[in-house]
Design brief:
Blueprint lengths: L10 H10 L1 H8 L1 H4 L9 E2 L1 H8 L8 E9 L5 E9 L8 H16 L3 E7 L10 E5 L4 E5 L1 E4 L7 H6 L3 H14 L4 H17 L4 H14 L4 H18 L4 H25 L4 H8 L3 H10 L6 H11 L3
Length: 313
């Protein structure tokens, strides 16, 4: 039985979920900072501004960085720098990187930023919070806030009771880590967590957002994925919520599309946006056929020929 490879670029679902639920994320992980902010006023993700200071910085799949402008309850804007170490491991340079970003924000825009880090790694001892140096006439002590998702392992009942959407996010993350080599157990937890979305009486938009996150991070081997969908269809009939089928489309098909695109890039190199768009329009059966056919591809032309022959079928 061949298993699907684990996704390594988990920053995408994390970025999506942070953007969808920023106030809830700050309230859940950093309540003291959240208490300063007037969430009734609009906040703004400063993606272009952040790109200006991060072009020459280390970038990789492990990082999901967000720079956000919010407004304080007592007036005036606050800039938040949120760093998500998605697949973080212990590294000595991390505190320096947090300081570097904070300094670059201030140097480029004249705005002090509150620096926060969400650590998703599995090392219970790694808890960086300070970057400092001390010379006879020059000293620096830069502190930043962190939250360690691993700590929530001992707070499961609290997660169960919470109405904050990030409680589900943390549960999905922890169970993904705990079932790395236990696909059957992961399938069971995936079903339980998605079922919780409906049992909590969430709105359709929230169900879809959280469903996308769970489906992305809790990747299953194809046979178990099919079993999962059979159970899910039965559950759909039980609760008679027709929009669950939308979840099936954006979840299962999205997983298939991403897997095929990654395999194609390894076989034939970079793929144009037009070809990627054509692949997203394929049916599940066509995606599975492409997944088998691509093993014989040696160039992009092989892919183009396959698409021309199969898109009209």
């Amino acid at each position: 039985m061949t298993k699907k490879p684990e996704r390594s670029d988990q920053d995408s679902p994390w970025k999506e979920i942070l953007e969808a639920y920023l106030p809830q994320a700050i309230e859940f992980f950093f309540p003291e900072t959240s208490a300063l902010i007037d969430w009734n006023k609009p906040y703004e993700f400063l993606d272009k501004e952040f790109q200006q200071i991060s072009r020459n910085a280390e970038q990789g799949r492990r990082y999901a960085d967000k720079l956000v402008k919010v407004f304080a309850k007592k007036g005036g804007e606050i800039w938040l720098f949120i760093h998500l170490e998605v697949q973080g491991t212990s590294e000595d340079i991390f505190p320096q990187r947090m300081f570097t970003y904070n300094f670059r924000i201030f140097d480029r825009f004249g705005k002090p930023a509150i620096s926060l880090a969400i650590l998703c790694d599995t090392d219970p001892q790694w808890r960086p919070t300070v970057y400092s140096y001390n010379y006879p006439h020059t000293k620096l002590n830069f502190e930043f806030g962190i939250v360690k998702l691993l700590d929530y392992q001992n707070r499961w009942e609290e997660l169960e009771r919470s109405n904050n959407p990030f409680a589900i996010v943390v549960m999905a993350h922890l169970k993904t880590q705990a079932t790395t080599k236990k696909p059957q157990e992961r399938k069971n937890w995936k079903f339980q967590l998605i079922r919780k979305l409906y049992e909590r009486g969430l709105q359709e938009k929230d169900i879809r957002n959280l469903y996308r996150f769970i489906d992305w991070v809790m990747l299953l081997p194809k046979p178990l994925e099919r079993e999962f969908w059979e159970e899910f269809k039965a559950f759909e009939q039980e609760i008679t919520m027709t929009y669950v089928t939308t979840g099936e489309r954006i979840g299962y098909e999205k997983g298939e599309q991403n897997l095929v695109l990654k395999q194609l890039k390894k076989r034939v190199g970079e793929i144009s946006e037009d070809i990627q768009q054509a692949i997203t329009e394929l049916s599940i059966d066509q995606l599975e056929s492409l997944g088998e056919a691509l093993l014989d591809f040696t160039a992009v032309d092989d892919l183009i020929n396959w698409l021309q022959q199969n898109q009209q079928q």
